[in-house]
């Protein structure tokens, strides 16, 4: 049901929102009388029509009786006109506030400046309902045109009044059955905010029920069956058993294969129903069309959960989707939980439990957990990560596949409770229940780093044909990240770079960074990177400079970024780095430190006393440049000691920028 | 001299620019008469004052006699008022067109929408004068608010008229001695553009004289002296001689050292003046304070050019700057050219001529030339590049240092003429003569990739203290890149990634790309990357799809990006890649191709017949993911065969995006 202006305004007023009173007039005479009463200039609008602007039904800045007459005659002729509405003309900055109900995320509100700013420049901000005061403040400051609100050519808004208005709108949308709303225009001036026109669509809002089921047994099963286990080396069904053995999974392993006696030393069973003990988790690696049948066996056996690594389901069309629906039906009726299908599944580095069919070289144990909606995650991708980033340690690794049953928010909920997980990294293409994800994510006390693809129309189309998930509106997702303080990244490299820093180093307490570089041009590039990453260059204290002065040739200036080369020329590598790092970390003006090293044929690179560095409890990120193998060795040494090492200063500073932004919002949210 | 409105308009009219005629009135009566004559609404402005808006001296939308009276009384009271100017009120979109004279780049013009758009949102475009028609079109389309010009709420501009206006303004600024100009506001409507107010500052424009001297002898000297050559292994003065020997420089090498007999087998001389033959180039590696004296010796000897690798000059303060001025004075009077100081100097891989004091492992010969304003370029940085990018081959490598004499534009001019150079990469912190650089760069028929730092205030400050060069206005530099079709990058990694592609592969003829990936999620990420890189996904022809169908399981969809995994599962790695690559390259709808490979414990990666691929003369970029060493080996194999290989699809597509943008502008410019 669509509320027209007057009805909409009535509802708004109930929530304490101030609207501009209009007077509906049926005659010129009445319009003139009203206009004189409320005082020129006035606004006149056609009455009884919703989209008034589109039919030329709004006339502004009417200054005298003559103009009222002309306006009335013009407006009353519009088809559907039931009179003419005369309102005072409020001077102020034009705003638009709207709401809508998104299929994946539910209700959200948008904010922007009027007309061109919203319609052409799309300079809007957006948040899911309900919003906090902080969210409202962010929404206002986020738009490019924010400065206009602070005052331009003598007109100025009361920003606090806009915050209040946004909070009231959020409450209204939350409490009422509103599926769409346009407050447009709203006039903001120094006295407050005034809704001049409004359109509200009443209807049933989407409901986002969701479960948070216990999934921890997937990572610590007491027993596992591998259905589709194979004797042929190199086959997926063989690799799974091989991986379980290699990673030292200590609980019972039951390969299921009617044609084999044993695989990798484990006794085989013709069917899961023949397994003598209870089975917690079954890994299913048989062709898609047989999976429903296998699911029935699992139900009979009382299996708690299955990881379906096979592909050929909904990602490949309607035929596969049928198998999916069948298996899900069996799962629902028997209480089995499903990971996948179309996934490499899960890995827990502590217990050595792994469901992947790709042979994996060693994965290091650590405190990072990753959730990824990609088929080959526990395969080529982990091979690449493990060999290129030897210092990164993982706790839980989770490939989500088509996620027909277990959802992102359930996995996230589990990881946020998991004591072994310090940082969560997520790769997401689309959600089945975005609102649930938001609700779990926004209550996180751990950092969550998210790489979301399917952002563009091209990407959404590709995602549809691949995991049948809807990419969703990227603008909403981006706002969600700000609202829930998620760290959004745009590649797997960035995801790893940032999770690594969060895994190894403490959070900074502020945004002031010091940089040590071995070239002048590196200092210039670093200074740019600090600026564009939203950080500030720390002003080094007098004492810091004095301490560094001891190892600096008299003609060389001590700045931040610090060009350490002339110092190294005089004193060798060791001393200048040691003194500068120590002095900077002791400096109260320095919240974090980036140190750029090099190695070469001539120079063996500097290695600090890592224990001492850790005592400062300030983040220190290192960078090393030079020949490939030397740098790799250095990276190994630093990272196994808990200090991340990046390939160049720009990359390190960009990571620090995102981490700092997270940390500063994190602190504020908790305080 | 500042021209006030009426004088400025007169000058504009001389260049065919249409201005809004105003009538200066000394009395209310005259103002009313004029207003009636030209018709309401009118605009009234105070006469005789320059910054009228700032003092409330402009009143718009005056609709009747009463309002004329009130306006007149208000305006005439303003201090300095010499009357009131009455003008017709033009309906249209408000524009601002301005010009200024930059200390590094000279005259430029800016374009933007009026008021808030320019003043608060800074939504402007900018080009150096003179502009071409193409530049004018770009300026207009570049602003975010461009759509407003195409029509919004019934008002629409004549874009062609704006193009004409910009061209006339450019001509005016070029021909007249104008140092600053504001045409504000200009009204654009369907009939044309009308300058409603103007302010022009007449004065002496900056002059940008520059030389383009012959510097080719620096890369092919017939003889070289190393002044400050040292017997101590590891010392800079030793490394220089060692490098010359190692890289097989065939001409005469004369180490100069009064205390040594020979170094690395070359006979030493006490002074350059003792060298029996003519010396083309002297490499100077002695302390800064002795350099002026050495320069005198070089002048006496008739040396053509010197490369000063020592540091301790203007980059370290006034004391060093004195040495610089002294040496430059000697150079100017004796005709010696100087590279540096504070640089590793130059290298020519063809002749093995090298001036660097850093021992360098092998640098591969090729067609890329790099110019870098960084001290350690032919040192740690090349070590890093040569070992990480074994497939990249270089022709000339040039460290610029403090560039007190030989300038960027001279080096660029040389490289653009150099037959061995196909692509130029440049790292720049600041210019001594930015206009000269622009003039040389814009006439290039070779791609130029530029990484410019010192972009932010922080960065500019760091650059000042480091090479004493002024970073300049980044907005102007960015526009310069568009105008001269330079490929702007933001890191050395990006510089290498792009020069590599340009070095190895042909330019694409269009922006339609096909992608092959081995995972569904890689397809999604690639599709996003195509979109955000300004490319389009090619629509594969029916024939292409049919050909690929032969190696595709019947249930798998053939899309672009193509998920090749299901095909590989059925047919192995070789055939699907071969068929898909061939089919796509034959497809007329495909301008370029990105192929993502993987290697793992199980799979040896696909390697094509490179000769066949080259026959298509379409760019093909490869990507390989997987374990570090396997990927490195693959990279070696692909790149030595002329096909660049990147670490992930996003990186490869971003490179292709910038290359394609260059190629498409390049073609248009030539046609």
Report on the architecture of this protein.
Two copies of one chain form a homodimer. Chain A has 671 residues and is an alpha/beta fold. Helices cover 38% and strands 22% of the residues of chain A. Chain A contains 23 helices and 31 strands. In chain A, strands 1, 6, 7, 8, 9, 10 and 11 form a seven-stranded antiparallel sheet that branches. In chain A, strands 20-19-22-21-23-24-25 form a seven-stranded mixed sheet, sandwiched between helices. In chain A, strands 26, 27, 28, 29, 30 and 31 form a six-stranded parallel sheet that branches. In chain A, α5 crosses α7 and α16 crosses α23. Chain A is flat and about 100 Å long. The two termini of chain A are 42 Å apart. Chains A and B meet through α11, α14, α17 and α22 of A and α11, α14, α17 and α22 of B.
How many beta-strand runs of chain A?
31
Percent of sequence in beta strands of chain A? 15-25%
Count of discrete alpha- or pi-helical segments spanning 4 or more residues of chain A: 23
Please summarize the sheet with the most strands of chain A: 7 strands, antiparallel
Class by alpha and beta content of chain A: alpha/beta
The biggest chain-chain interface is: A-B, 92 and 92 residues
State the oligomer: homodimer
The rounded Rg of chain A comes to: 31 Å
Write the topology of this structure.
Two copies of one chain form a homodimer.
Chain A: E1 2-3, H1 5-14, E2 23-25, H2 28-38, E3 42-46, E4 58-62, H3 65-76, E5 84-88, E6 93-102, E7 106-113, H4 116-119, E8 124-128, H5 133-142, H6 146-150, H7 159-175, E9 178-189, E10 192-195, E11 198-202, E12 223-227, H8 236-246, E13 252-256, E14 262-263, E15 266-267, E16 281-284, H9 291-301, E17 305-308, H10 318-334, E18 337-339, E19 346-348, E20 353-354, E21 365-372, H11 377-388, E22 394-399, H12 408-417, E23 423-428, H13 434-442, E24 448-452, H14 457-467, H15 474-483, E25 487-489, H16 492-504, E26 512-517, H17 520-532, E27 536-537, H18 542-549, E28 562-563, H19 565-571, H20 574-586, E29 592-598, H21 610-615, E30 620-625, H22 628-640, E31 645-646, H23 649-670
Parallel strand pairs in A: 12-13, 12-16, 16-17, 17-18, 21-22, 21-23, 23-24, 24-25, 26-27, 26-28, 26-29, 29-30, 30-31
Antiparallel strand pairs in A: 1-11, 2-5, 3-4, 3-5, 6-7, 6-9, 7-8, 9-10, 9-11, 14-15, 19-20, 19-22
Helix pairs in contact in A: 2-3, 5-7, 9-10, 12-13, 16-23, 17-23, 18-20
């Amino acid at each position: 049901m669509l509320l027209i202006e007057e009805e909409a305004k009535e509802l708004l007023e109930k929530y304490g929102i101030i609207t501009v009173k209009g007077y509906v007039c049926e005659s010129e005479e009445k319009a003139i009388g009203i206009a004189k009463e409320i005082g020129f200039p006035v606004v006149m609008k056609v009455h009884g029509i919703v989209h008034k602007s589109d039919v030329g039904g709004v006339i502004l800045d009417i200054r005298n009786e003559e103009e009222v007459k002309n306006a009335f005659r013009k407006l009353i002729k519009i088809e559907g006109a039931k009179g003419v509405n005369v309102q005072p003309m409020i001077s102020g900055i034009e705003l638009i506030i709207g709401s809508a109900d998104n299929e994946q995320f539910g209700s959200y509100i948008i904010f922007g400046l009027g007309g061109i700013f919203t319609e052409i420049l799309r300079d809007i901000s957006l948040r899911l309902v309900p919003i906090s005061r902080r969210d409202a403040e962010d929404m206002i400051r986020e738009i490019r045109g924010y400065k206009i609100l602070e005052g331009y050519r003598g007109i100025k808004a009361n920003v606090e009044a806009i915050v209040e208005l946004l909070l009231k709108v959020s409450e209204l949308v939350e409490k009422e059955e509103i599926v769409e709303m346009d407050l447009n225009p709203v006039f903001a001036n120094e006295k407050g905010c005034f809704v001049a026109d409004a359109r509200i669509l009443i209807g049933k809002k989407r409901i986002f029920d969701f479960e948070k089921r216990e999934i921890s047994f997937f990572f610590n099963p007491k027993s596992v069956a591998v259905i589709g286990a194979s004797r042929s080396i190199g086959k997926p069904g063989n690799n799974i058993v091989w991986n379980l053995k290699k990673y030292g999974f200590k609980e019972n392993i039951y390969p299921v294969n009617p044609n084999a006696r044993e695989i990798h030393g484990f006794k085989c069973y013709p069917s899961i129903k023949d397994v003598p003990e209870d089975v917690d988790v079954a890994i299913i690696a048989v062709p898609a069309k047989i999976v429903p049948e296998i699911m029935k066996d699992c139900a009979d056996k009382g299996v708690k959960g299955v990881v379906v690594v096979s592909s050929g389901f909904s990602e490949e069309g309607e035929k596969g989707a049928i198998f999916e629906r069948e298996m899900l039906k069996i799962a629902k009726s028997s209480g089995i939980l499903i990971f996948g299908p179309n996934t490499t599944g899960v890995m827990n580095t502590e217990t050595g439990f792994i469901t992947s069919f790709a042979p994996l070289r060693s994965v290091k144990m650590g405190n990072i957990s990753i959730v990824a909606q990609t088929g080959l995650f526990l395969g080529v991708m982990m091979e690449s990560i493990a060999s290129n980033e030897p210092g990164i340690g993982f706790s839980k690794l989770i490939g989500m596949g088509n996620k027909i049953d277990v959802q992102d928010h359930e996995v996230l909920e589990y990881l946020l409770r998991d004591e072994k997980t310090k940082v969560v990294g997520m790769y997401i293409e689309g959600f089945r229940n975005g609102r649930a994800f938001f609700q779990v994510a926004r209550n996180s006390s751990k950092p969550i780093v998210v790489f979301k693809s399917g952002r563009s129309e091209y990407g959404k189309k590709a995602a549809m044909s691949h995991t049948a998930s809807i990419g969703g509106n990227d603008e909403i997702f981006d706002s969600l990240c700000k609202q829930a303080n998620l760290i959004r990244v745009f590649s797997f490299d960035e995801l790893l770079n940032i999770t690594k820093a969060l895994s190894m180093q403490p959070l900074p307490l502020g945004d002031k960074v010091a940089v040590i570089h071995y070239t002048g041009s590196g200092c210039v590039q670093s200074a740019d990177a600090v600026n564009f990453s939203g950080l500030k260059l720390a002003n080094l204290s007098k004492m810091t400079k004095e301490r560094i002065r001891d190892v600096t040739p008299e003609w060389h200036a001590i700045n931040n970024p610090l060009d350490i080369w002339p110092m190294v020329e005089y004193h060798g590598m060791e001393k200048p780095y040691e003194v500068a790092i120590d002095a900077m970390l002791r400096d109260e003006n320095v919240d974090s430190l980036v140190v750029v090293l090099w190695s070469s044929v001539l120079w063996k690179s500097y290695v600090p006393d890592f224990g001492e560095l850790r005592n400062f409890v300030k983040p220190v990120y290192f960078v090393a440049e030079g020949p490939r193998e030397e740098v790799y060795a250095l990276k190994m040494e630093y990272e196994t000691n808990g200090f991340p090492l990046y390939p160049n200063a720009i990359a390190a500073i960009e990571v620090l920028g995102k981490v700092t932004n997270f940390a500063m919002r994190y602190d504020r949210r908790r305080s």
